[in-house]
Amino acid sequence: PKSTILQRGAFILLEGCDRTGKSTQAEKLVAALNQRGHQARLWKFPDRTTGIGQMIHGYLAQGKDLNDQTVHLLFSANRWEAMDTLKTHLLQGTTLVVDRYAYSGVAFSAAKGLDLHWCKQPDVGLLAPDVTFFLDMPIEESMKRGGFGDERYEKVALQTKVREIFHALQEPNWQLIDATQAIAAIHDSLVHSSLQVIAAAKDAPLQCNLWA
Ligand code: NYM
Ligand code: MG
């Protein structure tokens, strides 16, 4: 019999400033892909469930202080500690819908004043996304959404800088999404694009070359 080669899943990333609807869209996208018969699962960074993730959570939500370089490296380590698991899922054919990644890592730390080049280095060589959906909207709009201001970084001036740095980090496989659109309209376009990305990624090798 003809041998069958297992087709890998796609690495689909959602990025953007706080309160742009990433988590809502990521959950809806996973459900829609599963419904269409694609194995898909959600992954979120920071992953607050690990030991490193708990240190990050203490910093973001519980007022624990850490110096800027240290917290930057913790966010990066929180991605590296997930790499083997993420690779295994992708190679088993599962598509990953990832809510934030290294672009957030660099955008937030550089917005605080750390050197952009320095910020990228710890994440060099991570798995590279097949597509990045950048959910973009004016900060004045996202500010109006519920919950803004609960965590460290949820401040207008900082978010404005973060947005600028995100734009500077754009790569050819980014798709800019107007995040002020209705939830259903954004969802439809994410599903449409994701199906194309899944079809294109299935025979392509995994790329462990972020910023390399
Ligand atoms: N954040 C997130 C960083 O500063 N660096 C990173 O590497 C990542 C992944 O954490 N304001 C920031 C962005 C958010 C905060 O993320 C918590 P979320 O998606 O709100 O849980
Ligand atoms: Mg948040």
From TrEMBL:
Keyword list, A-Z: ATP-binding, Kinase, Nucleotide biosynthesis, Nucleotide-binding, Transferase
Sequence ranges assigned to domain Thymidylate kinase-like in this UniProt record: 14-189
InterPro entries: P-loop_NTPase, Thymidylate_kin-like_dom, Thymidylate_kin_CS, Thymidylate_kinase
Any matching Pfam family: Thymidylate_kin
GO CC, one annotated term: mitochondrion
Protein origin, superkingdom: Eukaryota
CDD domains with a match to the protein in the record: TMPK
HAMAP family hit by this protein: Thymidylate_kinase
Protein family (similarity comment): Belongs to the thymidylate kinase family.
Protein name from the UniProt record: Thymidylate kinase
Source organism of this protein record: Dimargaris verticillata
Name of the gene this protein is made from: CDC8
